[in-house]
């Protein structure tokens, strides 16, 4: 039988195929194998009139069938029943909930269970498995399994059919997301910014093609962890995270990793912004990794000048005073092409809220595969919610937590700059401590890494350590802490390894 020819439909009743019911009619009223009401809620969710009427919430909804391709679903299952190699191919592409017809998901699950036990999966064994589970009638009987096999001449195209099934599932999730967003808008329940953020999250989840499960058995997680360990070992010491450009720091941390929130904290005029720019330079200019800087303190032109000064080794005050020499211009011209072509994005919008930053990062992640986010600096951000926080400390705590969630959601490192209180100035050695983080102790709690920046010559110009800076890794959730000494070249607006001085 050709794939273009519809198979016999054991769900047909009243002259209407069970999978093609108009959405205004509930599928719970179907006659046939599913009439006993044994379906899981997940099968019903979004497939009856309430879920697919376009979000109108009442009469007059769209009489539309959700995106699906039953021929492709049948061909996938037929291929899996013909060949265990097809099972291995298909399982990498689709999940059970990608099937539109609940009975097809039931058959798919039975096939995978047999395959996982190392047993053959063919119409006979799958029928026996379904009988054992009491589900054979719900899928249309053993004869339907033989019909599935007859729907495809070969299992060779199973992965192609699986792609079609997956694409239709993504489209259904998109329709469902649109319905949810419409309902959110009409309900107008809660803070507007929170509603907008929830709507964005719904669409982002669809575009990322995420599965609905948010939990996994330890066995599945261990397999992924072992794969990562093996991949790291095969790199023979190669950097696994986003490189920062500082040799000792990268040796300690192995780079900045997805999901991490990194806090760079210091007293004013210590060089927080300069260090953050160094991290972004290393990622985008040196390693061609897309990064974005949200600057609530400096304008974009000032940032660009600092980047050029650091890259071309042209004194920043020469640029600002118009006293650049011919050699300065030559060095600048030599580095300009690499700097201009780097995938580094700068946003100096004033009064940026957490919601705006999150939306922009999601867009950059989707369009440009964003790998690093820098926010300068945390205390200048606004929560963006219409509900006023109980205190500024609570507001900063909320923003800190949201930055950690952003890093986790987009699977990239987020660097947040933060001010320290006056605690260091009251100590003899002036060295900062994590407890000096200003306005919120939750910053320390949320951060995976806290880097405290300290320069003795900021307090004592004639210090024997003038020109040196300490990167105090005071918290490192996934590794050891340490103090790393680097050189501060303020005239070039950069920090460098001591070996480069």
UniProtKB/TrEMBL annotation:
E.C. number: 5.6.2.3
Keywords: ATP-binding, DNA replication, DNA-binding, Helicase, Hydrolase, Isomerase, Nucleotide-binding, Primosome
Compositional bias of kind Basic and acidic residues: 26-50
Domain spans labelled SF4 helicase: 235-501
Biased composition range(s): Gly residues: 51-62
Record GO biological process: DNA replication, synthesis of primer
GO CC list: cytosol; primosome complex
Keyword ATP-binding among UniProt keywords: yes
Reaction(s) this enzyme catalyzes, per UniProt: ATP + H2O = ADP + phosphate + H(+)
InterPro entries with a match to the protein in the record: AAA+_ATPase, DNA_heli_DnaB-like_N_sf, DNA_helicase_DnaB, DNA_helicase_DnaB-like_C, DNA_helicase_DnaB-like_N, DNA_helicase_N/primase_C, P-loop_NTPase
PANTHER family: REPLICATIVE DNA HELICASE (PTHR30153:SF2), REPLICATIVE DNA HELICASE DNAB (PTHR30153)
Protein family membership: Belongs to the helicase family. DnaB subfamily.
NCBIfam families, per database record: DnaB, PRK05748.1
Name of the protein this chain belongs to: Replicative DNA helicase
Lineage of origin: Bacteria, Bacillati, Actinomycetota, Actinomycetes, Kitasatosporales
